[in-house]
Amino acid sequence: MSGFWACGAGFGPHRYRPDPARPPLVQPLELQSDEELTDSEESVYSGLEDSGSDSTNSSDQEEEEDEEDEEESEEPGNGADPQVRSGDGGRLVPDEYEEDSSDEEDIRNTVGNIPMEWYQDFPHIGYDLEGKRIYKPIRNKDELDKFLEKMENPDYWRTVQDKMTGADIKLTDEQVELVHRLQRGQFGDVHFNPYEPAIDFFTHEVMIHPVTNRPADKRSFIPSLVEKEKVSRLVHAIKMGWIKPRRPKEETPTYYDLWAHEDPNSILGRHKMHVPAPKMKLPGHEESYNPPPEYLLSEEEKLAWEQQDPVDRRLSFIPQQFRCLRAVPAYPRFIHERFERCLDLYLCPRQRKMRVNVDPEDLIPKLPKPRDLQPFPTTQALVYRGHSSLVRCISVSPSGQWLASGTAPLRASHPNTLSAAPAPGLCTGDGLVVGLKNLSGLLQALKQVTWHGKGDYFATVVADNSSMQVLIHQTSKRWSQNPFRKSKGLVQCVLFHPIRPYFFVATQRYVRIYNLLKQELTKKLMANCKWVSSMAIHPAGDNVICGSYDSKLAWFDLDLSTRPYQLLRHHRRALRSVAFHKHYPLFASGSDDGTVIVCHGMVYNDLLQNPLLVPVKVLKGHALTMDLGVLDVVFHPTQPWVFSSGADGTIRLYT
Questions:
Q1: What backbone phi and psi angles, to 5 degrees, belong to 524?
Q2: What DSSP state is assigned to residue 252?
Q3: Measured distance CA(642)–CA(275) in Å, rounded
Q4: Peptide bond into 375 cis (omega under 30)
Q5: Taking CA 459 as the corner, what is the angle to CA 454 and CA 462, rounded to the nearest 5 degrees?
Q6: Are 445 and 461 a contacting pair, CB within 8 Å?
Q7: Distance between CA atoms of 45 and 33, rounded to whole angstroms?
Q8: Closest CA to 581 of 628, 624, 616, 622
Q9: Which structural domains are found in the chain, ordered by start?
Q10: Largest pairwise CA distance in the chain
């Protein structure tokens, strides 16, 4: 059907025409075919169409209204404003279909909301709806063109580039104002007031009645049916085996890396090996712009500062004084100091120094007290006089009754140790005198004579750097031999081992031990001193002491090492002589400072225990003559006594 008839009060029947500007209030019925319409349905409308009870006046009015409706329907096509009269009072409403456009159609770049970094290395920026490439706008402006545009274009400062389309967009005044507000930390909306008055219902004041006194709901007192259904479903799922309870985690043993801190590639190793850079030294009073007068340099100090090398200067700058802080100029060495700081940071390696908390008392060796180590010589008992010049050497008889001494002018005397009276002549055997006479015709001046323990052999040293400076003589056969083919250096002294067939030869820096039976070098001791002056062997034969001209006394343990077991620096000047006692654990050293130092040297039979060295007494009495002090030191064979000869021409006995 094409429409329906309606009757209004005061109007005749007229045909309803829907307004094309708005949808109809009642949707039209679907058209039905003539076959589907029954006779009853046709009779409903047939009675209305055949009724002609209305007057002709109503028909005329209907025609006039139809003409007015046609004129109103033609007005939108004539270019008038598309306005629609609303049904409530005739208010005009703007047409919502005036601008039938969408945001998607205005966008020239239809690539979509994708990251533009994908096309950063391509000449196009994406693809349009037809699948064609959308090329980027050509930008071939160099720096000069950009500068000219910046100078000539007044809107250059408000022009930005759109990353989506690649076009230049000029910001409006509202957008510029929004950017300025955001930069100042303000809100984007101008009319937004963040400090609007608010009513604080919950204050510190205690109120009589609560703010809200609404009674609790009934559902807060009864169990939740929803939770009951959830629990029922979970219980059913557990019974059916659909949900399995969590299994307890099996505790697996954890093994830690013991060497993780040592590996520099591991995280723990890097954290442990990290050493922070040391902080710079804080500025002092001399770096102030107005330092105290005592920190300012005088003219002489400035001249001396300029003449010094930069490395030797205490300060790297000259302190200056200014009237006020405004008068301080720029620091000219700022960049240089920053450069030096950078060099120190990446050129100077940093190392973590492990600080050990050690008690200073533990560093001091636990030595026994000297009074517990007696007997040892403590006081001067006798002074032997009679020599007019310095006494070079002394020797005590095996019985301890006689004492022989030698002076610089090649004189010898043997005073009695008990009477202290010098003998008029020299007592020697005929064979020995003959031997010396024969040797004196062949060799140069003798430097040292030492005897073997059995008494049949003795060795001599001459002050010569040739291969004949050391000779071994046999008194029974009256013949001499040279044990060395060539010289190993300037020999200072030689000694025979007390119980083994060893021969000790001391040069300036080393002590060589030779096996006389095998005729080979056994050991080479390094004295760690500049010039060896004297040497002595312990009666047991396993320890050796050496004195040097650089005021050092080296104790060697032959079973331990070829280097000194201990270096003693008790004397202030050169050592001239050292000696061991044959029966007591004592050894002594004489020096040019005029003193004799007696030390306790206990050697244990246990090889695992090191020797005990304790200085016990400093003996004084010799006067310095020609910068010489004590020249020789010898112990008594049986008593804890010590003899010393000096450059003052005296021999002193300490008991």
A1: -135, 110
A2: P
A3: 59
A4: yes
A5: 165
A6: no
A7: 16
A8: 616
A9: 375-654 (2.130.10.10)
A10: 194
- Which residues are CB-neighbours of 463 under 8 A, at least 6 positions away? 444, 445, 447, 469
Phi-psi map region of 533: left, alpha, beta (phi>0 left; psi -120 to 50 alpha):
alpha
pTM of whole model > 0.90?
no
> DSSP 3-state helix, strand, coil percentages of the chain (rounded to 5)?
20, 25, 55
Number of other residues whose CB lies within 10 A of the CB of residue 289: 14
Residue with tokens 């019974």: 239
Contact yes or no for 85/75 (Cβ under 8 A): no
The rounded Cα 331 to chain-centroid distance in angstroms is: 32
Q: Classify 302 in phi/psi space as left (phi over 0), alpha (psi -120 to 50) or beta.
A: alpha
Q: Would you state the structure tokens that stand for residue 396, as one six-digit string? A: 């005590």
- pLDDT tens digits for range 539-575: 988 899 999 999 899 999 988 888 999 899 989 989 9
DSSP secondary structure string for all residues of 288-323? SSS--GGGS--HHHHHHHHHS-TTT-S-SS-----S
Q: Which two tokens stand for residue 7?
A: 């009757």
Retrieve residue 479's tokens.
């013949």
DSSP state letters, 328-370: ----TTHHHHHHHHHHHHHHS---PPPP----HHHHS--PPPG
73: number of Cβ within 10 Å: 13
Q: Does 99 score more than 80 pLDDT?
A: no
N- to C-terminal Cα distance for the chain?
Answer: 157
**291-301 average pLDDT score:** 91
Q: What are 325-358's pLDDT values in tens digits?
A: 999 999 888 999 999 999 988 888 888 777 788 8
> In 3D, which of 494, 492, 540 has the Cα closest to residue 513?
494
CA distances from 39 to 32, 45, 323, 328 (A): 14, 11, 122, 116
Q: Residue 224 burial by CB count (10 A; 0-12/13-18/19+): exposed, middle or buried?
A: exposed
Is residue 634 within 8 Å of 398, Cβ to Cβ?
A: no
**Do you know the residue count of the chain?**
655
- Which amino acid would we find at residue 306? E
| Residue closest to 404 by CA, chosen among 430, 373, 427 | 427
Query: Among candidates 524, 523, 520, 496, which has minimal Cα distance to 510?
Result: 524
The pLDDT value recorded for residue 44 is 39
Report the distance separating Cα 417 and Cα 422, nearest Å.
10
What is the arrangement of strands in the sheet containing 612-620, beginning at the earlier edge strand? 575-580, 586-591, 595-602, 612-620
Q: What is the pLDDT of residue 51?
A: 39
Sign for the CA dihedral angle at 151, 152, 158, 164 comes to negative
- H or E stretch at 273: helix 267-273
Q: Which residues does 133 contact at the CB level (< 8 Å), separation at least 6?
A: 124, 126, 127
* Residue linked to tokens 């010049």: 389
Could you say which DSSP state residue 625 is in?
B
pLDDT tens-digit map of 214-241: 888 888 899 999 999 999 999 999 999 9
Pairing of strands 92-94, 83-85: antiparallel
Band of pLDDT at residue 104, cut at 50, 70 and 90: very low
Phi and psi at 304, nearest 5°, equal -65, -35
**Residues facing residue 344 across a β-bridge:** none
The CA distance from 462 to 493, in Å, is 10
Query: CA-CA distance, 368 to 176, in Å (whole number)?
Result: 93
